[in-house]
Specification:
- The structure is a homohexamer.
- By secondary structure, chain A is mainly alpha-helical.
- Chain A folds into 2 domains: 61 residues, AhpD-like (Up-down Bundle), CATH 1.20.1290; 62 residues, AhpD-like (Up-down Bundle), CATH 1.20.1290.
- Chain A is 68% helix and 0% strand.
- The first copy, chain A, has 7 helices and no strands.
- In chain A, α5 packs across α7.
- The longest helix of chain A is centred in the last third of the chain and has 24 residues.
- Chain A starts with 8 loop residues before the first helix and ends in a 13-residue tail after the last helix.
- The interface between A and B is large, with 67 and 67 residues.
């Protein structure tokens, strides 16, 4: 259940500004399926457009990290935030971009290792080593 | 400041079981420097040994994700957890394993993008699309 | 699903101390509907009474922030905590107290913006500017 | 300490694209002081520019929520995220936009109240009431 | 719904290495029921085995904290992380290890109290008192 | 550094309502030392009084969990929230209430174990087993 209306294709198609974004999502992803996140954002056309434009740049533009690696990072953040929707959608996205079972398994191991040592560092309040400072001040 | 004593090299060297782990840390990392996290864990020799052994397997063993990519995932988890020590130490580790300025910049963009859309998905309580379910039940 | 029994009206009415709180909830809110949170707390009568009394003071007493603005702050905390129940119930409460669609849209934008810059500040471990310190020490 | 260099005014002024953003920050805020967050982002000019442009729209544009109320929401998110830098800078921003001591006190009470009931709702795993669902499906 | 397949008993029994772990889980817990967490981990046999072995040591070995108290701590972490699955499974585990209704009620009060004062300490950015430092440096 | 003034003993003593609370803190704890948390809350006398009264009930009243066990739960929540101040002050409180080095070591192991399996359960989005449901609905 959600706190807002989820827009159907019929409703989207009746609003040209929403339809434009949905058409672009379908074309960029080469898939007719548009997931609920975008149907929820459709309640606020500006946020729908801006979020999609920013996502395209951050996740799909040319860069030094492959789109698949970017999805692994996305899953790590979403897992740590406990965002159920985000874990589901970006695990699917990572698979679509080529994540293998072995990579998925290693991803989980790293996330679990980090969660564990984060907890220890916080419980012990370990002071940051001076050598890690790059502020230049 | 920390909630436990940070062990000096002199104190470590006086305890053979601690010295063994510190020697291994230095050899594996090819560096004399051992950061505070391990000096804090030294209060509990079993936890020191187990954490280091597990870290070696998860972060440095042969696998399908490069050690550098694993550090990027580690930074993503540590940032989301707000663990200051972990962000500092694993950013240094990622740099030591070859992270470029461009990759670091892209990492931040992905983390910030994920934080933003995680917040939106949670605020709107977007229901998970059935197609993302792989439970087989 | 929950970890405790959810009390029905019939069960509540059979316990005078629980009935007193439920009657007050209904009267203050001018609505017969009592949501599941209170039915779960009913397992511990003291916690039920104390939580309701504290909530009335914090959320509904005279003050400098309107009850609606307080609900916006509540939603912001609940979203960041990833508390699904809390997001749902306080979004409904904010609507009942007059939150418009435009205000809801702006709320989401601010939450998403804060999530994004929080992540950047944490990833970069930006040191607090001295001018922000008011401790007086 | 930070994981990146903090840019001084002298260094900023030597780069026209960075100087443009810093000039705008100073003009919009009517203050010569530019806080460390922007000096850290200066390592990545695109992120500096985009974050500032987005922040101006979300936090300072005309809207139904006053700039001060938006800062209260920002503080609520930053507190819940445990982002020390963000709590400090946005508490200062809220004060600059007129937050009174009484409003600040009420803000803390709402944040603390939400933290408490969030914990209870999560500990008890209270199921979301059907009446809160607006998905339309 | 989950991001991976949940293994049935039939599938587990067809893989000797998985069956060994499941047999041990059943014997240690003196129960035929094996919950979904282990059925999800079965996708990665090494992680299944290592997690179970580590859990046995941490949660069930001889020590100074009773197994029931360890479960209370587990619930506190899981609640704060907002991990729905973990709250459910460890509340059941605590009950199986003797947690009374009164203890469960007190646990919730402590978790809620900590959530509340954590929020206040973070909102006010209270500086750590020097007397709490044990680092020895 | 903090976002509010920290009240000195001299300033506290000049305000009878604040002095009353500080006197009670000193008497209950049998110690002259009053930590910064209370000096920060002193900016809002009502919150100071209410928080202290609630803390006394939750943490120090007769009950089925010992005061020391309650502090362990408090540390677990504070660690998971990443609240540095809270970790420091409640680790000191647990020690004052008799926490041994062995118990502290086990506490850390449980917190780290829970953090790790919480991450796995969230990454895999393990569905809650029906048998864990006690809602009675």
């Amino acid at each position: 259940m959600s706190t807002v209306k989820l827009w159907t294709d019929e409703e989207i198609n009746a609003h040209p500004d929403l339809k434009l974004v949905f058409d672009d999502i379908r074309q960029v992803r080469k898939s007719e399926f548009v997931n609920n996140f975008w149907r929820a954002l459709a309640n606020h056309p500006t946020q729908l457009k801006n979020t999609w434009e920013q996502l395209k740049v951050v996740m799909m533009s040319e860069g030094e990290l492959s789109p698949m690696v970017r999805e692994l990072i996305y899953i790590a953040v979403s897992t740590t935030n406990g965002c159920s929707y985000c874990v589901h959608s970006h695990t699917a996205a990572a698979r679509a971009k080529g994540m293998t079972d072995g990579q998925y398994s290693e991803l989980q191991s790293v996330i679990a290792m980090a969660a564990q040592t984060n907890a220890l560092a916080t419980a012990l309040q370990v002071p940051v080593d001076a050598v890690f400072d790059l502020s230049g001040s």
